[in-house]
Structure prediction request, 428 residues.
Amino acid sequence: MSKTAILEVDGKRYEFPILIGSENEVSIDISKLRTITGGITTIDPGFKNTSSCQSAITFLDGEKGILRYRGYAIEELAEKADFLEVAYLLIFGELPTKEQNKKFHRDIQKQSLVDTDVQKILDGFPKTAHPMGVVSALTSALTAFNPKSVNVDSEEAMYNAVVKILAKLPVLAAWAYRKEEGLPLEYGDNSLGYVENFLKMMFDLPNEVYKSNPVIVNALDKLLILHADHEQNCSTSTVRIAGSSHAGLFASISAGISALWGPLHGGANQAVIEMLEDIKADGGDFQKYIEKAKDKNDPFRLMGFGHRVYKNFDPRAKIIKVAADEVLADLGIDDPVLDIARGLAEVALSDEYFKSRNLYPNVDFYSGIIYRALGIPVPMFTVMFALGRLPGWIAQWREMRLNKEPIGRPRQLYVGATERAFVAENKR
Ligand code: CMC
Prediction:
């Protein structure tokens, strides 16, 4: 294959280098386009064809349904690793040794206290506040308690910032839930594993001894692994672009949490369960909702279906579907919504509209069913996604800073009014 691409504009030919990724992906390097053409740009709404960076963290092949973190298949990691090992792998590039893993966990535990003044900020929120807004705001507020920005040239400073945010985000998440429930705040128990401790911080009651259930701990661990990174998605691109102005790690992550909140991204897991509930309440007629989703005059979309990158199947959805069956069986739960989900998926997958557009169930389609079985309240579903995605955001932020990427600042094609004279108020 030629190593350059040719662009012809008004009879002038311009040559651009072609970059080849480690999985033989081809990318035309147009970074000098404006300079050599005297101002021509490209336009690509939603960045559907744009590689915003070179990254060595996650490989995704949407056509083949492949997802690998640092070269390791998601299926293998979900089965054999635990969440903190995966976090270490994503952030630092290699699976930790036994000693590194132990130290990593211990260092996170040492940072798991959150300044009690953060509670005063939490107190200011109404109980009705959505926990994603609360967690995003509190994460940003952490910057005020850790005012020095990370020295990215110091491995030690970077490591300390990483363990700090991994330690504190679960506390903030649990607090957002406890505030909504009117429960006293809780700091967990450092003798427990990361996921088990999070569950204790969520569900411990002042008048009962908290008993953890290994089925729930393992299922949540697996879900967090499946969500841990997904290359340049909306929230991760937000984290990278916020961080590219040299905004701090916590502030950048707070921006990522806000981006994740939307129903087209992480907020879909809440939207899916609400949609399934609506279908159930409406008598369980899937076909009606399939028709609504296909109707271009109806804004309704089948939540949990479709993906910008996966055009065959979402490997995470495959694993979660099996896990949902196992968890419900293990916990002895019979959730009628799972039958609706299965039925809806079956009908959609054989419908020409969905087939021709390559719309398949995505990660969010079945995750809400497991979260609900694990006792996680619906408004907290997207917060669970954020906890899972945290290592990915950190890894991508760190990579962006270590690669000394320039500030993210796209161009635009201006289509507004051309210059005109000011019109006095009485003449408008
Ligand atoms: N229901 C009905 N039609 C759909 C859906 C859907 N869920 N998703 C896409 N389409 C149609 C869309 O109307 C368009 O049709 P046409 O070509 O006739 O105009 C075509 O499929 C292509 O859709 P698109 O909006 O151009 O695709 P996109 O890559 O911009 O959007 C998406 C991807 C995930 C935002 C979209 O599929 C969607 O809104 N899905 C529902 C929300 C959802 O489940 N989001 C979670 C994504 S996975 C977790 C995550 O990454 O956060």
